Amino acid sequence: MAKVTKVLIVDDEHTIADTLAIILTKAGFNASAIYSGTEGIEVAKTVKPDLIISDVAMPDMNGIEAMIVIRGFLSTCKVLLFSGQASTVDLLENARARGHEFEILAKPVHPQDLITRLTT
Question: Which of 2, 63, 85, 105 is most deeply buried (CB count within 10 A of its CB)?
Fold first, then answer.
């Protein structure tokens, strides 16, 4: 029996997070929606996801900072960031300068494109 990939979706826009969780669950993933960077860190400690899909721009803690913290205790967790804001480029460059590399998708992302990206 194949292992089901645990995915944590972190986005302060509840509709986006919930919709992605539903789509990925229907595609065979074990997906959960979380609505803040801080909450994402806490949940990741217990859930130990294989993959986190996170928005970058969130009010409490941006997704890049949250993912840096999570990778500190889950080094093998894959991270896919997504954002609809141009300001994300500066945040990514700052993270790279600190030794952290993240893959990013532009919002909106078509569900089938996301599933293809996750399964290839």
Answer: 63
* Rounded-to-integer distance, Cα 62 and Cα 17, Å: 15
Per-residue burial over 66-89, b if 16 or more Cβ lie within 10 Å, else e, is bbbbbbeebeebbbbbbbeeeebe
Residue 102, domain extent: 6-119
Query: How many structural domains are present in the chain?
Result: 1
For residue 26, the domain's CATH number is 3.40.50.2300
- The answer to whether residue 1 sits within a structural domain is no
- Please give the model's pTM, rounded to 2 decimal places: 0.81
Strand (E) or helix (H) holding 40 = helix 37-47
Find residue 78's DSSP bridge partners: 51
